[in-house]
Amino acid sequence: MTRDRREMPRREIALKIEPQDGGGLMIAQDLGLGGMLVTTKDARWPGQLLRVRFRLPGERRAIRATCQVMGLADVPRGIGLALRFVRLHPDAKAAIHRFIDHRPLEAPADDSAAARVVAWIRRIVDDCAELRAFARP
Fold first, then answer.
1. In sequence order, what are the beta bridge partners of 61?
2. What is the pTM for the complete model shown?
3. Strand 79-88 relative to strand 26-32: parallel, antiparallel, unpaired?
4. Which burial class, exposed, middle or buried, applies to 83 when counting CB atoms under 10 A from its CB (0-12, 13-18, 19+)?
5. pLDDT by residue (tens digit) across 41-57?
6. How many other CB atoms are found less than 10 A from the CB of residue 39?
7. Is domain 10-100 given the CATH code 1.10.260.40 in the classification?
8. Long-range CB contacts (< 8 A, 24+ apart) of 2-6?
């Protein structure tokens, strides 16, 4: 079984994943910018490439991605697969980021474009400060 080697934050979810190779349905247990943990009844093997399709809550368009099976994972039922995204469109990556980063955005002073940009910049500055704090020994 794999040890946890995640480098990016993930969000827990129960999400239907459709393999595009005709295999059985998968359920994502968590999702991140780098990949996801899924459970399935159909075995896949480390190194295997897999094309998948899924739709995030609140998103109109389905996401299509190519994943690589990184390893097997312990799960209560079925087979657990650690999947890493190897091909993911930038728009899909942005949608996943929006889904994972579910913190409320600071309300801008007004509804102008400049005020919204300032709110996003404040979020980025806060994120950078948090990452610096983690990087310090």
1. none
2. 0.70
3. unpaired
4. buried
5. 998 999 999 999 999 98
6. 19
7. no
8. 2/70, 2/71, 2/72, 2/73, 2/82, 5/70, 6/32, 6/34
